[in-house]
Amino acid sequence: MHLDWAAQHPGRDAADRTYFLVEVTSATDIPELLLREAENAVIDSINSTYLPD
Predict the structure, then answer these.
(1) In this structure, is the dihedral angle defined by the CA atoms of residues 40, 20, 12 and 49, taken in order, positive or negative?
(2) What does the pLDDT look like over 8-32, one tens digit per residue?
(3) Is the pTM for the entire model greater than 0.90?
(4) Residues 6+ apart with CB under 8 A from 9
(5) Cβ contact 34:6 at 8 Å
(6) Mean pLDDT (whole number) for 40-46
(7) Backbone angles phi, psi at 46, to 5 degrees
């Protein structure tokens, strides 16, 4: 993962890496498709905020 990140972000400081874990807990069943859409929206938001290039 570190080598992949370095290859994808040449010239960036390794301290710029961010790791995150998002867990969704619900009392009802949520369809997998909706969970994937929510996950993608969160990842897109993080990337646009912290990796603007």
Answers:
(1) positive
(2) 778 877 776 666 666 767 777 888 8
(3) no
(4) 16, 51
(5) no
(6) 85
(7) -65, -45
